Amino acid sequence: MMRLLGSLLLAAAIAGAQVPPDIEEGLRKIGQIVDPACTAKLYRPLMPANDINSSVTPLYPGVTIARDVSFGPNPKDLVDIFTADKGGASRTVFIYIPGGAGNKIEQQAREGNAFYDNIGRWAAKNGMVAVLMQRHPGQNWDDPAKDVSAMIQWLEANITKYKGNPDRMFIAAHSAGNGPLGTYVGHPEVYGPKGAGVKGAIFMSGQFNIAPLEPQGAGGRGGFGGAAGAPAAGSTCGSPPPNSGAITGPSGVGPAPPAAGRGRGGAPPVDPATQLARSSLPELKKTQVALLFVSAELDPGINGAMSAFYQTLHDELCKEGPAHCPTMLFAKGESHMSEVFAFDTADKTLSAPLLAWMKKVK
Question: What is the CATH number of domain 2-238+291-360?
Answer without folding.
Answer: 3.40.50.1820
